[in-house]
Amino acid sequence: MGVRGNMLLVLLILQGILAVRNLFQNPGLESTNGWTCLDCSGSLSSDKRSGSHSYHVTGRNHDFSGASQEVQVSGGHYYYFKVWVKIDNTANGKWYHDVQGQIDILHNNGQHEYQQVGETNYVFPGRWYLVGGDHYVAGNIKSIRFYVQIPEAGVNYHIDDAQMDEVAYLSNFANEANQRIDNLRKANLAISLSGSASPSGLQVEIQQTKSEFGWGSAVDANMIVDGNKKAYQNFFYDIFEWAVLENAMKWPAIEGSKGNYNYDTPLRAVNSMESKGIIMRGHNIFWGGDFVPNWQKSMSGSQLRPELEKHIKGMVGHFKGKFRHWDVNNENLHLHFYEDKLRDQYITQWMFRETKKLDPSATCYLNDYNIIANSGSTMAYVDQAYWFKASGVPLGGMGIQSHFGAYVDVSSVKRRLDEIAAVGLPVWITELDISEPDETKKAKKYEDLMRLYFSHPAVKGVMFWGFWDGRHWRPQAALANGNNVTPNAAGRKVQELLKRTWRTNETHNIGHGQTVHIRAFKGSYKLLVRHNGHVIHTQNFSLGGHGNNLKINLSGSGSNPHVDHVLIG
Ligand code: G3I
Hints:
It is a single chain. The protein is of the alpha/beta class. The chain has two domains: 21-166, Jelly Rolls; 212-490, TIM Barrel, CATH 3.20.20.80. The chain has twelve helices and 29 strands. The protein has an eight-stranded parallel beta barrel with strand order 13-14-15-16-17-18-20-21, surrounded by four helices. The chain has a five-stranded antiparallel beta sheet with strand order 1-4-9-6-7, with helices on one face. The chain has a five-stranded antiparallel beta sheet with strand order 2-3-10-5-8. Helix 2 crosses helix 11 and helix 11 (439-454) packs parallel to helix 12. The chain binds ligand G3I. Residues 246-247, 250, 291, 330, 401, 431, 473 line the site of ligand G3I. Keywords: Carbohydrate metabolism, Glycosidase, Hydrolase, Polysaccharide degradation, Repeat, Signal.
């Protein structure tokens, strides 16, 4: 190995060390060293998540009372904090709690800045939950103190297995992402020519007809079939291969008043898109909080339960086999209407089991927010997925909404995505939008996020949450404007990426006995064989996995060749 090779090895080892470096002292909590109980009593406990001990917190008088550790770091970086927490009891009148990872940043001027890095909601006594998140810590600081907060006093808890590290800054983001895109999203295609005829003037062309990676958008169920909305439809069909109905499948839209159903609107849209080869996600069967139908708000748990069962049957009965994914209980990390009404912490798990039982070919997804646009719920989401997996719930994928404001930082977004990917399930970005008034900046931000998602091994597809400012919940995020649905700078960038940059369409001259090698994006293709400019054969094929070989066998004469067959594989 030469000097460059040695340097590379050292760099790789260094990177590895940095990746696992824990900035907390005594992160395994096998002793109390380094940990302080703020306004509480802390002691070593044999009730542990791993190793032999955890740290037990009792006597909490305030929300902030809890286990803490001060760490000396320099500012100007993002830091990530994680810890496992188990609560012992609930406060009066509560049957679960929200647990927060907090930091107290001590600035050089002596001032304290308190920030929440993440919150795990809906925490019940007796199970270990993952709590944490990240925060950008500006320069001029003395130290950071991490602590675990519960809004209610009197709740005792344990902590174990803590982790704090610096989030890697991606100084070479685009190049590294492009390299990953090449490795992950492309495969080798070899096209060779043999047979009894050996004419000159032969060409092979490959046209990519579908992408293996899913690119799609939310659509309005009426506009996508309305004869007066051709510009809207053209924009959509030109670049997208996946769709989700933005609102028409939600329970209030399906059953606005009890017993009166409107399946027709979504069915018309779904059938129309299906006939055009669009693949769809089903959004959503349940959605708690204020998004339940009004007629449910005053119902008791026992009145509600049979309605839930009826609703799954109705939805699956009408749409069975039409959706690749179901968003089963939208945003259930944050909204607990059904859990609270039925006083059943397992109701979402039941919803997953029932949906999968009735529509086995569909994959059941979680779909939530504050997962990568910020770290508010990242660790809670990871925790929930581990819990579902361990409980045998048919959870098939993790939906991440991805609603961004103007601030987009790919380094921290990638780190959050890596945390999600560690669960090992397929990830879909289900609701991408970036609300940014400046068109040029918006174009760059969409490009960065799309490149990050496309380059991430866990991500299998990206859905935009709308594209037209005439039908967008945040019009400043739109890709196209006005009556003609005219692409703006962001829309033009998305078109360029999806139609050209990340698609393969190539033509090559080829002679008898020759092989053309193409590194092409994975997906479905059409092969055209031309002789002196005239198409003499077309053939569909797909390119995936580790690549494909197409062997074209020619017969006929030099002036009138024809393709006998194309061997694929
Ligand atoms: O269609 C009626 C229109 O006839 C009426 O004049 C108008 C007056 O308010 O309301 C229109 O319906 C609104 C509909 O959007 C279409 O614009 C509803 O009131 C409004 O509640 C609805 O908001 C939707 C929201 O979910 C609630 O369902 C947004 O369009 C939709 O983008 C948003 O989508 C959610 C995802 O489902 C879950 N994740 C977050 C995402 C954004 O909030």
